[in-house]
Amino acid sequence: MAPTIQSFINSFQNRLEPPVRQHLKNVYGTLMMTGLAASAGVFIDMYTSFQAGILSTIIGAGLMLMLIVTPDNGKNTQLRMGYLLGFGLTSGIGLGPLLEYVSVVDPSIIVTALLGTTLVFVCFSIASMLAERGSWLFLGGTLMTLLTSMSLMTITNMFMQSPFLYKSHLYLGLVLMCGFVLFDTQLIIEKRRMGNKDFVQHALELFIDFIGIFRRLLVILTQKEEQSRCRKRE
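^ that's the sequence the OP posted. Answer follows.
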């Protein structure tokens, strides 16, 4: 076990220069803080009388836009961190209704989905870091095409109400988010090599990927549990 861990560490150090490794520490540290803010948002929605509804989505979109348009000049770091943590908080509040429903079906699904999301996110992140330089960047065009196709699928299904299209959208969305973890991780590394030190926005990008995977796993696991219960009743 020890030689395996040591070889992994050596491979990691050989692939990534010290400035890049430090940048990734900042990114993932900020990502963890955003995750805690999202957890606080979930708590606020589920265990208090505060119900933001669609308002949380609107505020979250505004905070994300403010973060993006505020320049990263070193003086605005705390302000931009505030925007990011606010976005995390509103994202958690937005997840509250879904988590409330899942907890009624089976609370253990939430833990399973969170552990599964973390495992998937970590594995794809490590795979991206240890891959050949830029080897996953080709995914950019494919991912954007798939994202556009899924948007059209959503609009189409608003009229068709097809269960098949809904499930296809759900599973394709999961694949899409996993692809974005690979792509965004390598893109962040390349941006840092080119001098971009904006760890706040990079954490935002990875947080969106993480939440996207988590949300879809929640829905998939909940649907499977409901179908299993229906079969048992029959």
